[in-house]
Specification:
This protein has helices spanning about 5-15, 20-25, 50-60, and strands at about 30-40, 40-45, 65-75, 80-90, 105-115, 120-125. The protein has a single domain (about 5-125), classed as Nuclear Transport Factor 2, Chain: A (Roll), CATH 3.10.450. The chain contains three helices and six strands, in the order H-H-E-E-H-E-E-E-E. The longest helix has 14 residues, at about 5-15. With about 130 residues, the protein is of the alpha+beta class.
Length: about 130
């Protein structure tokens, strides 16, 4: 990984996989905008590093373990898109009928927009 963006993204992924909120957000702008899109609909928007950290801390309670693995990466002018394989083991029952201990597996992508080596927008799509 020679590209600085790749190092920043890998740091985020490593922090995510270890439930390490500080590591996840180390390269975030204070004004970061986060969006989560599922099935074509935005189901969460957060503004600011502190709001993201709060949500990330709350999400820890939902999973025994979780793992994102990068399967592809595309760089554009001020953004990088990654494709990921995602797996997690649930720590609690979910409203959609999934039960504690079940394994969740999906594919998705994340788009990281950069300004001066800081992540200013992060969009997760699944």
């Amino acid at each position: 990984m020679n590209n600085p963006r790749e190092n920043i993204i890998q740091n985020y992924i490593d922090g995510y996989n270890k439930f390490d909120t500080e590591k996840m957000t180390r390269d975030f702008s204070e004004e970061i905008v986060f969006q989560n899109i599922q099935n074509g609909e935005v189901n969460m928007t957060l503004e600011g590093k502190n709001a993201f950290k709060q949500q990330a801390e709350q999400a820890r309670a939902y999973f025994v373990s979780r793992q994102q693995s990068i399967t592809a990466m595309k760089h554009r002018e001020n953004e990088t898109e990654i494709e990921v394989d995602y797996s997690a083991v649930l720590a609690a029952d979910f409203p959609n009928g999934m039960r504690k201990g079940e394994k969740l597996e999906l594919k998705g992508k994340s788009i990281f927009k950069f300004l001066d080596d800081k992540i200013v927008v992060l969009t997760d799509i699944s």
